[in-house]
Structures are given as structure tokens and as C-alpha cells.
Amino acid sequence: VQLVESRGGLAQLGRSVTLSCTAQGFTFRTTPMGWLRQPLGKAMEWVSDISASGATADYETFAKGRFTISRDNAKNTAYLEMNDLRSEDTALYYCAAAFGAALNSWGQGTQVTVS
Fold first, then answer.
1. Which of 19-28, 48-57, 84-93, 101-110 has the lowest mean pLDDT?
2. HEC string of the chain?
């Protein structure tokens, strides 16, 4: 399993960033995907997940109305569009795959810093 996130980088308050995640080594189109994040010095947080087909998605409260998860099964890629960024969105963001009931395999992570 290989999950590679795009580079996050530095973003201004209120602006937008879209992360992508390219997957290899498993059948992407039948695997639910998601995003987690870990602010510096804090525990890992669930952000969002999306069904294998892309028909349904769920979001943590802080992400609702601001973040959009999506996927392109033809490209083996998942996305997280983040709008109206806040300082508290600064974190290491991980793309994750769900093998079983939980998001239990994730990539190396990409830093998003909002200032």
C-alpha cells in the first residue's frame, strides 16, 4: 500500500488549499478513503472520509461547510479541498485508506500551515 500526498505548504487565513493523494498497491476503486490530521503536539484527528464509489462522505464538525472530500477512481486519487482556512487548521495532513472498518493505513503526511 502506498499513499502519497501532494505538498501542502503555506496558506493565508481565509484562503484555500487542495490536497491530493495518489494511491498504489491496492484496489482503490473498492476502498473507502479519508483524511486525518495532526496538529503539532496534539493527537491525530479524523477530518473526513468518502465511500469507495464517492457517493457518500462524512466530515468532522470543524470541516463541515469548509472542506470537501472527493475522489477520482479512474486516477486512483483522492482529494481534500479546504476553504476558509483558519489558524487551527495548521497540521500535518494524512491521506488514509480503510481496510476494514477504520482508516488504518496512511501516507507520510503533508504539512499545511495557515498564517
1. 101-110
2. CEEEECCCEEECCCCCEEEEEEEECCCHHHCCEEEEEECCCCCCEEEEEECCCCCCEEECHHHCCCEEEEEECCCCEEEEEECCCCHHHCEEEEEEEECCCCEEEECCCEEEEEC
